[in-house]
Amino acid sequence: MNLILLHPSDLDHQGHACITDARRLAHLRDIHRAALGDRLTVGVQGGLMGKAQLVELTTELAVFALDPLADVPPPALPVHLVLALPRPRMLARTLEHVTALGVKEITLLHTKRVEKSYWQSPELLPEKIHQHLVLGLEQSRDTQLPSVTLTKGFRPFLEEQLPALLRGRRGLVAHPGMPMACPRGISDNTLLLVGPEGGFIPWEVEKLLDAGCEGMHLGPRILRVETAVTALLSRLF
Ligand code: SAH
Predict the structure, then answer these.
(1) Is the pTM of the predicted complex or chain greater than 0.85?
(2) What digits encode the pLDDT tens for the residues 199-225?
(3) Which residues line ligand 1 (CB under 6 A)?
(4) Which of 73, 78, 191, 81 shows the shortest CA–CA distance to 137?
(5) Which fold would CATH assign to domain 4-66?
(6) Where are the domains of the chain?
């Protein structure tokens, strides 16, 4: 928690913020080893960031006196990430990583090699997804939550969503063995598609290329989804 992310409801009108939840209190105590008078970095969800002084700390609550907040969060990456739904633990970590890296639009997609049972996982409950996004924002000092869309059919995605997603975006499909190497340092608005742990099937790749996406590879090493996504985002942007 390099940033204490405040919910607008944590704030009063006198420039104070009060947090009472066990997670943030434990983090303040155990990781920050916070003491009265400490000045910490805070940010308001969806808003500005700045410094705040810890003015009260008990086992039940922490109260901060906020400086006038004036810092804008870091810029977002120009990418909409389409991720074939990985296994729940990998999903949790991947959501944190990509949020920390600045992705603001995420679609979780069903493809042939996604285990159907993953769609029943409690990790997909809105509050669980929210938790991982918040951890990513706190890690990277950002306040803007990404949006996450669940798309449980590949064909409906192809027919109903992909054409609109590709309008004004460069579509890039990460797939080992493609002839083109992953581009570096681009500033194009991008739609980045990453396959499941078993990869995209040839038919899916063909359909994505037919729709106007470019296939690309990251070299001969096959990476886990969470590693591949991190490597792809760093190399692309
Ligand atoms: N078993 C699959 C690989 C799956 S890796 C296969 O051999 O094709 C999971 C996903 O990460 C892939 O679908 C791809 O989107 C991405 N990925 C991992 N390593 C990659 C590489 N070297 N080049 C391009 N994409 C890669």
Answers:
(1) yes
(2) 999 999 999 999 999 999 999 999 999
(3) 174-176, 194-195, 197-200, 217-219, 221-223, 225, 228
(4) 73
(5) Ribosomal Protein L25; Chain P (2.40.240)
(6) 4-66, 79-236
